[in-house]
Amino acid sequence: MDQNANGARILRPAELPSISRAKGVVTQPLVMAERGSTTLTMGLSTFQPGATIPLHTHNVEEAITILEGEAVAIIDGHESVVRPNDVTFVPPGVPHHFRNDSGATMRFLWTYGGAHVTRTYVETGVTVEHLSREDRRIAGAPDA
Questions:
Q1: Percentage of residues in the chain having pLDDT higher than 70
Q2: Which of 3, 31, 51, 103 could share a disulfide with 9, CB 3.0–4.6 Å?
Q3: Sequence-separated (6 or more) residues with CB below 8 Å from residue 46
């Protein structure tokens, strides 16, 4: 990671850690509060075939750009297939999740409109810090 004195930096995914987010899902945080961001959080996630994240909401806006593969985006009860370069936008409080029904890996870039992000699981109403150990445990991460 290259960093200037003013806090500007170049983030190189090959040099940054990834975490198991759920069974078959690996997430790599990029821009985040711990790296100096005050208004933005973003990263990469990869879903293996059959992988999904439970239905949830966030406290901030979320935009996702599909980079490779395809997925089913379920947003506020509506299902849509999304493919490379498709972008989803989800306002705070809107239930959503992604499911990889294809036989290939799916990868996307996620961006949140805030440096403090929470996730509320619709099924239980439990709110957790984004990517915290509790978040990963609820989502079914094998190492949480």
A1: 96
A2: 3
A3: 25, 26, 27, 105, 106, 107
Burial class (CB in 10 A: 0-12, 13-18, 19+), 73: buried
CATH number for the domain formed by residue range(s) 2-139: 2.60.120.10
- DSSP-derived secondary structure letter, 34: G
Residue 9 pLDDT grade (very low, low, confident, very high; cuts 50, 70, 90) = confident
pLDDT in tens, 16-32: 999 999 999 999 999 99
- The answer to whether 98 and 73 are in contact (CB under 8 A) is yes
Residue 93 region by backbone torsions, left for phi larger than 0, else alpha for psi between -120 and 50, else beta: left
Strands (E), 1-144: 2-3, 9-10, 19-22, 25-31, 41-47, 56-58, 62-68, 71-75, 78-82, 87-90, 96-99, 106-112, 118-121, 127-129
Give residue 1's pLDDT.
60
AA identity, residue 45: S
Alpha carbons 37 and 32: distance in angstroms, whole number: 5
Domain ranges in the chain are 2-139
